[in-house]
Specification:
Strand order of the largest sheet: 2-1-5-4-3
Bound molecules: adenosine-5'-diphosphate
Length: 378
């Protein structure tokens, strides 16, 4: 249909056709005059409120409202007519409606204003949002339950780790006593077994410490402040001075590092972990870590920090799993050993800040860890 044909058709549109459309719209539509009297009330409204058009037309629209709305409604209209300051007109918001049988339900109401021959009318479109509200409530209930069970799980992990520390320390100490007191009696095999026992209890102690630390991070709030990232990274480098020297490693800061709002201590921990990993998982004679900021397509709205190394790299199938607690890609003692908790802690700190962390890597050439410290919305 051409535009001129459509215009022609619209002129011949009869009142009957308009009424039929009005009666077949899914949403309820009510027209009131400036005194609140209903002049139009479509079929959807009959279903919604339980009053027939005959019951409703000529009555004040307050009959469709619960008591607390009813008492204020006249005031709303007259305030608006005098001040012209809209509270709901042209905006729309959630209100409550009351059916003929007295039940109250949530509805979305949007109101428009029409002036015809000097008279002002209001057109309200109403939609029953009971199902949506129930779903929202259900969802909130699930979120609350999930938060509660997460908190309980955190408390549980904390308590268990705490309680486990004592016996593990005991096993280690007793193995030590045995070695001291019985080394003349035990043969070589016995001593080896005792050595393994001590090694295993030391490792268990390290794992429990990691778990305790991880759950402590979850339990404590971030301490936000304006943080000079350049100074933070410098502090970390100073702390690692001997480690860097011993491992023939150098750190290159590739761009001006900004000042951002974050928890300085924890963000320092992110850098420390990523730097140490970049040196640890690295078999090049000259180890290099490059640190900087960039604008990354994965988070275009945010400052993205990166820590890039020239180490062994990470196969892409492990990009997600390395952030899991206790996940290591190598044998227990390979590359200096470790508990596999470092990156889980790093991710936890990033997520606490509302940010994201991801990896890009070429096996044999190195890995780059990118992270942001606030949500994608900024
Ligand atoms: P840990 O170093 O104690 O094993 P992490 O959580 O820090 O624990 O790291 C998990 C695993 O991810 C490491 O065991 C290693 O296999 C791999 N990994 C971490 N950082 C790097 C890196 N920069 N280059 C290569 N592999 C890495």
């Amino acid at each position: 249909m051409t535009k001129s044909n459509a215009l022609e058709d619209s002129k011949t549109f009869t009142e009957k056709q308009l009424r039929s459309i009005l009666d077949n719209t899914v949403d309820g539509m009510i027209v009131i005059d400036s005194g609140g009297i209903m002049l139009s009330y479509n079929r959807a409204c009959e279903k919604l409120f339980g009053y027939s058009a005959q019951d409703a037309l000529g009555q004040n629209v307050k009959m469709l409202m619960p008591h607390n709305y009813k008492v204020n409604h006249d005031g709303y209209i007259s305030n608006y007519l005098h001040s012209n300051e809209p509270k709901i007109i042209g905006i729309g918001r959630e209100v409550s409606g009351q059916r003929k049988d007295g039940t109250i339900f949530p509805m979305w109401l949007s109101i428009g204003e029409v002036t015809e021959e000097g008279k002002r009318y209001f057109v309200g479109i109403v939609r029953d949002i009971t199902v949506q509200k129930n779903l929202e409530e259900q969802q909130q209930k699930y979120v609350r339950a999930l938060e509660k069970s997460n908190r309980e799980l955190d408390d549980f992990v904390y308590l268990i780790s705490h309680d486990l520390k004592e016996p593990v320390r005991g096993i280690y100490s007793y193995s030590q006593f045995m070695r001291e007191d019985y080394q003349d009696i035990l043969d070589g095999e016995g001593l080896d077994k005792l050595e393994s026992l001590m090694k295993m209890s030391r490792r268990m102690n390290d794992l429990i410490d990691s778990l305790l630390y991880f759950s402590r991070i979850n339990k404590t709030e971030l301490s936000y402040g304006e943080t000079d990232i350049a100074a933070t990274v410098n502090g970390v480098m100073e702390m690692l001075e001997t480690y860097l020297k011993d491992n023939r490693a150098k750190i290159v800061i590739e761009s001006d590092l900004p000042t951002v709002t974050c928890d300085q201590v924890r963000v320092g921990e992110i850098f420390r972990n990523l730097i140490v990993n970049g040196i640890k998982y690295n078999n090049k004679p000259e180890k290099e870590i490059h640190i900087g900021v960039c604008s990354h397509e994965a988070a275009p709205q945010n400052i993205t920090f990166y820590v890039k190394d020239n180490g062994i790299g990470i196969p892409d199938k492990h990009y997600d799993s390395v952030f899991k607690m206790f996940k290591r890609l190598h044998g227990r003692d390979a590359y200096g050993g470790g508990t596999g908790a470092g990156l889980a802690i790093v991710k936890q700190i990033v997520v606490q800040h509302g940010g994201r962390i991801w990896i890009d890597s070429k096996v044999g050439e190195g890995a780059t860890f990118y992270f942001t410290l606030c949500s994608d919305a900024g």
